[in-house]
Specification:
The protein contains six helices and three strands; from the N terminus they run H-H-H-H-H-E-E-H-E. By secondary structure, the chain is mainly α.
Length: 183
């Protein structure tokens, strides 16, 4: 948490900027020194403002607040390093929202596992008209996550996460399977 810093000084002391008639006035100098103490944290924050919006540099409590800005899926139990990674990756994942790559990235950030994604769509180019349509005529999306212990994974959280980033018109199935060689 941020708090008061007794050693923080104003880079622009107000007493030095007063007209010369007040430079020797003890009351004016004490009053402006009190204002300097009040304004120093504000000036320091404004000087460092870009750092507050970089998840790698921002204070930990501010990173948790940034998670809400970028729509990061967090539980509040993440380590500081994991939280910074999730928030930093979520901002990038917004550009990919609704794509297989975007779904994969969001699931990877939240669960630490890259999912297998099968989608029914496709793209195709043909030099002659009435060529075959790409993909499956029945729309669908399957997100498959392979983990060592499928019963320990929060299925509801995974389903909510996938539902929030998938294309709205596409029905979706979520599967949680054991990894090869595990039970």
């Amino acid at each position: 948490m941020r708090g008061a810093d007794d050693h923080l000084v104003s880079p622009f002391p107000l007493g030095e900027q007063m007209p010369s008639v007040y430079s020797e006035d003890e009351m004016a100098q004490r009053f402006t020194a009190a204002l300097d103490d009040l304004l120093a944290p504000l000036l320091a924050t404004l000087d460092c403002l870009p750092s507050y919006f970089d998840p790698a540099l921002a204070p930990p409590d501010f990173v948790a607040w940034l998670a809400g800005w970028v729509g990061a899926e967090i539980t509040g139990e993440e380590s500081e390093a994991a939280l910074r990674t999730i928030v930093g990756g979520s901002a990038v994942a917004h550009r990919l929202r609704g794509t297989a790559r975007g779904i994969s990235e969001v699931v990877r950030l939240a669960f630490g596992v890259v999912p297998e994604i099968e989608e029914s769509g496709g793209a195709f180019w043909s030099a002659r008209p009435r060529g075959p349509f790409p993909g499956d005529p029945v729309p669908g999306l399957t997100v498959r996550l392979r983990v060592p212990e499928p019963n320990r994974l929060d299925r509801d959280r995974l389903e909510r996460l996938v539902a929030s980033v998938r294309p709205a018109h596409l029905p979706c199935t979520v599967e949680i399977l054991p990894t090869e060689g595990s039970q």
